[in-house]
Amino acid sequence: EKNNNTPPTAASAGTDLNGMAAVNACRKIRKNLTEFASRYLLSPDSDFDPSPEHIIFENGTIYDDRCKVRFPENKITFQELVKLAFMERVSMGERGFYATPEINFNRDTEKGEPFFYYTTGAAVSEVLIDRFTGHLKLERSDLLLDIGESINPGIDKGQIVGGFIQGVGWVTNEELRYTDKGKLLSYSPTTYKIPNIQDLPEIFNVDTIENQQHQINVRRSKAVGEPPLMLCLSVWIAVKHALSCVRNDVIPRLNLPATGEEILHRLTELTDDSKDYGAVKFSADESEVSLVSLSTPSSEKVQAV
Questions:
Q1: Using one digit for the tens of pLDDT, what is the confidence trace for 49-63?
Q2: Do 83 and 131 sit in the same domain of this protein?
């Protein structure tokens, strides 16, 4: 069955938009069942009028809280309620719709609120570079993400890991190469390198923050599909900082992706005494991450996070 006017499952908005639409539909069904239960559960001996506000759904049982003491037998299971509602031709199918509220953005002035909320996180990565070959090894990554209240922790953790590793491919491996005439050369897995199991960090810690203050969205959750991808920049920054120790903390220019070829090219530049860098010196106070376990400039490998 297809519904009209539905959004795509893109931008990590599948649960946000389609999930909330499903919730709205379920609320309509619950309203129908509640109104039916308020009439069915009312005892003939009571002096109450049917009132959906007094119908309680609790542990698979439905009852009228006004009758709980005087008429404790006036209760039914959810399964019984659905069966009775079906026999009485009560609608148990509804269509829900959801549009993200509080969104406004002026493209001309570039002002407004383009997003309903933000997913935030942090990452620290440690890399090891072979100065003779440019080979890069991701030794450790620690990720932390605020995901509100997780709907499914196992799936969410998998999304974080997958998004991060996808990003690692973006910043270290995946490169589009063209001929002088514009023909794409890296068009298949044999010429376009994507991350594999060997690109996983040896030490990989992933944790989430259960943000109790986040009170909006489906069960107070947050998008977790695409946001982790940006945490991969910790790897690229670590590569820059590792290279910076080669020549008196000079921060080199480093293109994306930081492939082995790109790293070796920058290492060659940094060890060329004829180069006049005039570059900004590395400052731990101003950096986004700090250097650790640095070897001397004459060592074979450099390491940084």
A1: 888 888 999 888 888
A2: no
Q: Crossing angle of helices 233-244/260-270, nearest 10°?
A: 30
CA atoms within a 13 Å half-sphere pointing along the CA-CB vector of 155: 10
Degrees, nearest 5: CA angle 176-189-257: 35
Domain ranges, residue 212: 121-304
Beta-bridge partners for 206? 143
104 and 205 both lie in a single domain: no
Cβ neighbours for 133, distance < 8 A, ≥ 6 positions apart: 260, 264
What's the pLDDT tens digit per position in 146-199? 888 888 889 999 999 999 999 999 999 999 999 999 999 999 988 999 998 888
CA–CA gap between residue 294 and residue 305 (Å, rounded): 10
Q: Tell me how far apart the alpha carbons of residues 203 and 97 are, in angstroms, rounded to a whole number.
A: 44
99 Cβ contact partners less than 8 Å away, ≥ 6 residues apart: none
pTM of the model: 0.74
CATH (domain of 7): 3.30.365
- First and final C-alpha spacing in the chain: 50
Q: Do 128 and 35 belong together in one domain?
A: no
Name the residues annotated as catalytic.
Answer: 226
Domain count, the chain: 2
126: which strand partners? 140
**In whole angstroms, what is the distance from residue 170 CA to residue 119 CA?**
20
Q: How many CA atoms lie within 13 A of 293 on its CB side?
A: 11
